[in-house]
Design a protein that fits this description.
25% helix, SMAD_FHA_dom_sf, alpha+beta, Tumour Suppressor Smad4, five-stranded mixed β-sheet, 521 residues, 3 domains, Transferase(Phosphotransferase), domain 1
Length: 521
């Protein structure tokens, strides 16, 4: 396997007041390319982890700063990878490898393993670990095997786009002519396909103007819409008239009298004004068409009654049929001219609509009681994603949300039972009279501030975006710090990053400066 060369390295994690570090150790006999270390120190690259070398116990120890970053393998365990995210991750990897020569680095010295590739959780920016050593491997084979393993085993990739992008990548990986440059070109093509705009915004414009679609307007159409413009005038005085039987003349608006002052308690019915654009034919053109039609009908009748057609020697029925055909042809010509698109006009009318009745909100005043330190109250059993209070205080500014309130009013002498969880372990913290409970209801439960990546959203700015993970396995529980800047502590001892530490009932767990007690029911 191409990754067999990694077996000669030891991988560990350390945490200190300055942050979290991935530590890669190798024998002191390895030739470290110090000029590459200096090059990275003097030319920081966002896609390469910051590197520091320390000599200890006859070993070279490479310290990579991974503070506030998340291992790619950790992200893949909890998320389905979208098409664009997949493309962006590999574009970052290839861009970093291809730009190595600009930094006098080797394209063969990057660690291509999802456990040691790191991303920024909220931007998905990739950072690679670089080994400043002479490593003799084929970079094309290394990248090919990593990508194939990533697609087949490591990642759950969303393929709902139906563009077969994964199959195109796999076909390239299986080809004998695979190279980094060809892979980069394919990813750029896939990215361009994503960025092509899709022109598809025409129908909403018609709906926006509320223009009704009329398949075949008839001459009688204006009659149906004639009374509509008078609609807004009818309800003008109704909204301010209460239903108490007071006569309309006694409701002056400028200076309401005593009985009328009660009107605000029962607000007038709100009406929403709606502008409607309608298309119809010009009235004058329609009238002219109607007159011409009448002339044709009268003329046909007069011609038939005058007996002028008798001189042709035809039967009366033939004369009637001929006159009818002639009248129909003239009528068709008249109305085809009248109902021309040029004779259409737009009419704008304002219609007042009474909105649908909204459910009334109970605005009854409630009594709020703050739970103090000397009061004992069972913890509220809440879903972990919605904490009942903002327990964590990164800033010293007082916040009214940092209080636990009893929402249901009841006499002070009565005890209100709020319930608790008997099936899941939970974290419970108290500070300044505030009680907070986090129920651990998943085998992998992540705590942090980044809503899209965690199960419990902390409001404490000292807590990392993806701070720590609590793991349930075979009836035992573990906590793991996820490279947080301010650290995770168990009973006052800071944990090494990315290392599972078993926790037991009543252990004190601290995320940055938010302290909790771990309770197993």
């Amino acid at each position: 396997m191409v990754n067999d060369y990694l077996k000669k390295f030891e991988f560990n994690y350390e945490s200190s007041a300055t942050g979290s570090f991935l530590v890669v150790s190798t024998d002191a006999g390895e030739n470290v390319l110090l000029y590459q270390v200096e090059m990275l120190a003097n030319n920081p690259n966002r896609n390469i982890l910051p590197l520091d070398i320390r000599q200890k116990d006859s070993k070279h120890n490479f310290y990579y700063n991974i503070t506030s970053k998340l291992a790619l393998s950790q992200y893949l365990r909890r998320n389905k990878l979208k098409r664009d995210d997949f493309i962006n991750i590999f574009k970052d990897i290839l861009k970093t490898i291809l730009s190595s020569k600009d930094y006098l680095l080797s394209d063969r010295s990057y660690i291509l393993n999802e456990d040691y590739i790191y991303i920024v959780p909220n931007t998905m920016e990739v950072s690679l670990a670089y080994l400043p050593l002479n490593i003799d491997i084929n970079v094309n084979d290394q990248l090919k095997n990593f990508t194939m393993n990533f697609i087949m085993f490591s990642a759950n990739i969303d393929e709902t786009n139906n563009d077969n992008f994964l199959q195109r990548i796999l076909n390239l990986l299986k080809s004998d002519t695979f190279s980094i440059l060809e892979f980069s070109k394919l990813l750029n093509d896939l990215k361009l396909e994503t960025d092509i705009p899709k022109p598809e915004v025409q129908k909403p414009v018609i709906q926006e103007h509320n223009v009704p679609v009329q398949p075949a307007p008839a001459p009688a159409a204006p009659k149906a819409s004639a009374p509509r413009p008078n609609i807004p005038k009818a309800p003008v005085s109704k909204p301010d008239v209460p239903k108490s039987g007071i006569p309309k003349p006694n409701v002056p608006r400028p200076a309401p009298q005593g009985p009328v002052s009660a009107a605000p308690a029962k607000p007038a019915v709100n009406t929403a004004e709606k502008t409607v654009v309608r298309i119809k034919y010009k009235t004058g053109v329609l009238i002219a068409g109607a007159i011409l039609q009448a002339v044709i009908i009268i003329g046909s009748i007069a011609l038939l009654a005058s007996g002028a057609m008798d001189s042709l020697g035809n039967e009366p029925i033939v004369n009637m049929l001929g006159i009818g055909i002639l009248a129909g042809a003239l009528s068709y010509a008249v109305w085809k001219t009248v109902l021309n698109e040029k004779n259409k006009v737009e009419t704008v009318s304002t219609v007042r609509e009474r909105p649908a009745a909204k459910p009334q909100i109970n605005m009854e005043k409630r009594n709020f009681t703050t739970v103090s330190n000397n009061q004992s109250i069972p913890p509220i059993n809440k879903a972990p994603s919605q904490p009942e209070s903002n327990f964590n205080n990164a800033a010293s500014t007082p916040n009214s949300l940092n209080e636990t309130t009893v929402i249901f009013p009841s006499p002070l002498e009565e005890t209100v039972y709020l319930g608790t969880s008997n099936s899941y372990p939970y974290l419970q913290g108290t500070m300044n009279g505030v009680m907070e409970q986090i129920i651990i209801n998943k085998p992998s439960f992540v705590i942090g501030r980044l809503k899209s990546q965690v199960d419990y959203i902390s409001q404490n700015n000292a807590v990392g975006k993806v701070h720590a993970e609590i793991i349930s396995r075979d009836g035992r529980y573990f906590v793991k710090d996820l490279n947080s800047r301010n650290g995770t502590f168990v009973n006052g001892i800071r944990l090494a990053a990315n290392t599972e530490h078993e926790i037991k009932n009543n252990d004190k767990i601290t995320f940055a400066n938010s302290e909790y007690t771990f309770i197993i029911p």
